[in-house]
Each structure stands twice: as structure tokens, then as C-alpha cells.
Amino acid sequence: MNTKPNILLIYTGGTIGMIKDSETGALQNFNFDELLKFIPELNLLECNIASHSFLKPIDSSNMNPTFWVEIGTIIEDNYNIYDGFVVLHGSDTMSYTASALSFMLENLTKPVIFTGSQLPIGDLRTDAKENLITSIQIASLHKDNKPVITEVGLYFEYKLYRANRTTKVNAEHFEAFDSLNYPPLIISGVNLSVHFPVLLKPNWNKKLVVHKNFESNILLVKMFPGINEEAINYLFSYPNLKGLVLETYGSGNLTNKTWFLKAIKKITNKNIPVINVTQCFGGSVDMSIYNTNKEYRTIGIISGKDITTEAAITKLMLMLGQNVSAKDFKIKFETSLRGEMK
Q: In the CATH hierarchy, which fold is given to the domain comprising 6-210?
């Protein structure tokens, strides 16, 4: 590029945006207008940095689709001004938000990098500085005058992952995230090592489309030994139910008890999509392996393949918001939209 890329930081809340009061020791929200004061190393980056903060930063435990739309709208409104975006977010629900944004942003041709930290930005041992600096550097990467990353990524502890392939796996270690079914896009060492073959290839001629309708009347039910008929019938009788994600055993296995099959049939007979995802962090759903799944295959349960629970939930919510027809729903869900599944 002949000029420095322009990068927009979007601060939603979370530990990375907190700093300790020097007198009381209490955590308070960081003023991103003073970013260079606290992280002077940013002056060394070959880019221009601007910031946009939520008026009221939120704890990521309070994240919901309304805020997803707010983030997407900020990107949409600034898409022609900035060359890349770095979203600062609490780590607890980051994989959900980042997955949601990947589905929202159709025809994306610029980097949207999510990051956060386990320790506040002013802490002596903080991971915030490295995560922030490298995320901005990745968002600035260009090759042949085009961005290297043209998808939604999640950067944490020296690795950039495809956002909709991630899940939080540790609440204490700096390596808080993993992507067991897809390799890292970039590994940060002495240099940034880009794994070009695994990057999403954009269509440079298509215009960005931002989808903003989410249907949140869905359920996530995790199978466990001893799950009983009364509890299932109570949950499944929710009158506004529009979609169901089942976290199943191993390669997508479900109990073949008559009462459970009957409960699932009641839902699928109403053309309510039922998504089968595995409880395992790694691996894929394959309902053809075990005979216990034979009857479920005939009633239209949708295979989540190797999708994460976070991506399955957000993809389901968005597709329901798009009013995809019951006839097309299974085919579309089982098709990769943003590299979220094989």
C-alpha cells in the first residue's frame, strides 16, 4: 500500500478495556483516547489507529444479539473509511459474538479481528498488550495492495483463528481459546507466519451485506445420562420455540428411547429445525455410524458436522431471522457459509 492502513478499534467491554485505579486498586474502564499513553509501542505500527467505544461498555456475560447488531452496524457505517477492524470483547462470550459477526458480514473483504485478555491492560503481567498490538498488526497486513485476512478472526495468545471455529477452553490460562477442527490462520512468533492455504478467499466484486435479524427463541439442550422425559417434554413445550440445538454424544449419538424420539418428532413435525452437534471439542457428527441413530436420520435432524456449538447457535439464529424456508433449511445449514464447517 502507498499509504498507511486505517484501523478502527471497537471497544465493547471486557477485561482488556479495564485498568486498575492506582489509589484504590479497583478496576475501571480504560479511556481509549489515551491508548498511546499506555501502549506507546503502537506508535511503531505502520497504520493509523482510531477508536470507537460503546457508550456503556458491557460485561460479555450480558452480550446478546442487539449488541451483535450494534457491532455490525459500526463496521457497516465505517466500512469505506477503514481498512480493518479490531473488536475488543470480553473473552467469556467472544466466540459467540465473533461467530455471529462472521455470519452477519456477507461478502466481507476486510479483516475483522476479535481479541481480549485474561488480565487488565494495566496489570504488570497482562496479556492485553500483546493481543492488542498483534491484532492491529494482523488487521493491517496487506499483500499485493489487498488485505491478507478477509474474514472474521479471533486472536489470542500468539494465534489467529477463524472466529467461527473457536471455543473458549480455559478460564485461567492465557491460551484461553482453541480451534480443534481447523488450523490457525496465523501464528505469531518472531515473525507473523500466515497459513495462506486455509484463509477464506473473498469475491472482491461483491458488495458487503450486513444481516441484522436474529431469532433468539431457540433452545440448547445438552444430552446426559439420566436425562428424563418430564424435563424434556417441559422444555420442548415452550410455545415460542423456533429452533433447537442438541449437544449429543460422540459422533452425534442420541438415546433411542421411544419417549425421546417421540419428543423430537413433535418438534420436526412443526418444521422447527433441530441441529445435532457433538459435545466433543474436536471431531464431527456422523449419524450413520451407529444403529441407535437410524430413526433420527429419517425425521430430518440436521447434521452440524464439525461445527462448534457457538457457531451452530448463531448460524441458527441468523437463518431463522432470514426466514429460510423449511424445505431449504437443512440443505443451507449443512452447507458452509463462512468456513464454519467442512
A: Rossmann fold (3.40.50)
